[in-house]
Amino acid sequence: MGGAVTAVSSNGEHSFSKPTRESITLLAGLGVEGDAHMGVTVKHRSRVAQDPTQPNLRQVHLIHEELFAEVRAAGFAVAPGELGENITTQGIDLLGLPVGTLLLIGGEAVVEVTGLRNPCPQIDGFSKGLLKEVVGRDEAGNLVRRAGVMSVVKAGGVVRPGDTIEVRLPDGPHRPLDRV
């Protein structure tokens, strides 16, 4: 099971979107070099306000490019990096992966999936009504988050568009993703 990187993005400032880059460098235990969310402890402002000593389980944000086609069908134009992700993927059911899945990216980098991104109202600030497209309810009324997954860097390396991604599932039993 695998896929590919279609875009990479980073931003040294806290802003909603991240400009796309030719490459990003992942640093083990820290995240994306030069990105505002890089660090051992939480960097997302809402998390820092709660407890700045929490471990940073949101070092690298990945979104599946297929989501862009889904929201485009609902009338929203979204390009890589615009929802704040660092790595845009193709061909992997990111949302269906269990906690602890390793993603081997390119020749060196490895990230471990920690959970789902918890989309916030800033998404509607980017494009009014988009939040309802990336957060919804299933038939049983359970909340469904579709805005990508978060991860931590286990092994550093340079990541570029076109890099392959190999998926390594953890030993069972598998734990489904929840928000982090």
TrEMBL record:
<dbReference type="InterPro" id="IPR011037">
    <property type="entry name" value="Pyrv_Knase-like_insert_dom_sf"/>
</dbReference>
<dbReference type="Pfam" id="PF03473">
    <property type="entry name" value="MOSC"/>
</dbReference>
<dbReference type="InterPro" id="IPR005302">
    <property type="entry name" value="MoCF_Sase_C"/>
</dbReference>
<dbReference type="GO" id="GO:0003824">
    <property type="term" value="F:catalytic activity"/>
</dbReference>
<feature type="domain" description="MOSC">
    <location>
        <begin position="18"/>
        <end position="168"/>
    </location>
</feature>
<dbReference type="InterPro" id="IPR052716">
    <property type="entry name" value="MOSC_domain"/>
</dbReference>
<dbReference type="GO" id="GO:0030151">
    <property type="term" value="F:molybdenum ion binding"/>
</dbReference>
<protein>
    <submittedName>
        <fullName>MOSC domain-containing protein YiiM</fullName>
    </submittedName>
</protein>
<dbReference type="GO" id="GO:0030170">
    <property type="term" value="F:pyridoxal phosphate binding"/>
</dbReference>
